[in-house]
Amino acid sequence: MPTPHPDIAPKRVSMVVPTFQEAGNLPLLIQRVTRVAQQQGWEPELLIMDDDSQDGSDRAVAGAGVGWASLITRHTDRGLSPAVLDGLRRAKGDYLVVLDADLSHPPEQIPELIAALDSGADFALGSRYVEGGSTDHDWGLFRWLNSRIATFLARPLTHVKDPMSGFFAIKRETFEAGRQFSPIGYKIGLELLVKCRCKKPVEVPIHFADRQIGKSKLTLTEQLKYIKHVRRLLIFKYGKGTALTQFFVVGTIGAIINLTALTVALRMGLRASMAVGIGIGVSFSTNFLLSRRFAFTDVRNRALISDFVRFASASLPGAIVNYGLTMALYKPPGPIGSPQLAAVIGIITGALLNFLFNRYFAFRARHYKPRGAKP
Ligand code: GDD
Ligand code: MN
User: Fold this and answer.
1) Which residues have CB under 6 Å of ligand 1?
2) How far is the centre of ligand 2, averaged over its atoms, from the C-alpha of 269 (Å)?
3) Domain map of the chain by residue range?
4) What is the pLDDT, as a whole number, of residue 374?
5) Which of 143, 179, 322, 354 could serve as a FRET partner for 339 with CA atoms 20 to 30 Å apart?
6) Are 125 and 165 in contact (CB under 8 A)?
7) 189: buried, middle or exposed (CB in 10 Å: 19+, 13-18, 0-12)?
């Protein structure tokens, strides 16, 4: 057991625990955390962030008689992630630790997380999925599969093996450098990993024990929020890339639709001036629907008609240029004999114009600044 060195100032460690109806778990949690803190010689702080459980949690904390442990009753902005963020903002320590109240996360391993931060990690994660990590056996197939799928979805965001973990430590300065927190759902660790732009996360293997008392609050609704959360994080991380990717995907599909409609119209014996117009008209509509699908929720929530007006006003100049150029190139004695080839050049030119317009008028993400944008 490491003993505190008399010459070195004790480490200031703040532990934040989100709780909802965990009264039964709090006495043992406080006891185990206290033992660790004493052995390590820390200057500890335990912040129990409770969403007004009204189950005697406050008495359980007061009864433990530990001066540095306090229960904070929250009445607004309920939820696991907001509670954790709230606690981290109040915390006074240099090392910030987050763990569950149900003792799934062994407090005895907090020193390992802190040691990882001391050796250069900017995020230390208690992990079930690295070598040496494990979970209790009675994890059902559903929960296991669920956790694995969620982990897979987080791949573009981080390479850690257990990004779903709610047991982690971070230095105060790393946390304070974090920007634009928008915690939804359960994955506050992932939120911090991405929003604090952690570059050197380290995973410490843990045994994730099943809770003995009380029941899990992880409902299906909470899980569905995860998909929304991942999308927000992707936009945060790859902001510009996403808009650009969206433009290319929609644009390429639109070009294929345009050329197909044009060809069909010509085969039906329509004049080129009509066929080119039909190709543009059809892809104009499908591009609108596709852009709307791809767009961010806050934008999509608006009425269809107002979205269409925005889209049309931003895309019409491109469509007109497309039409004019295609016809100028193809219409005898124009330089290009194939209407499709002329259309490709018209599409590319029109798309470039549309890109500039779309960037500045339609379908812009309003709440999320792209990476590197000035605040
Ligand atoms: N303040 C507050 N408000 N706390 C909450 C809320 C809430 O709405 N919901 C849950 N908590 C607290 C619980 O009291 C517990 O201390 C902790 O958050 C975790 O909740 P559990 O209900 O035990 O969740 P779990 O065991 O299913 O999920 C845990 O493991 C997951 C990995 O399997 C959490 O650590 C997750 O973050 C983690 O992803
Ligand atoms: Mn739990």
Assistant:
1) 18-20, 22, 49-51, 78-80, 83, 100-102, 104, 147, 164, 166, 186, 211, 216-218
2) 68
3) 12-236, 241-362
4) 40
5) 354
6) yes
7) buried
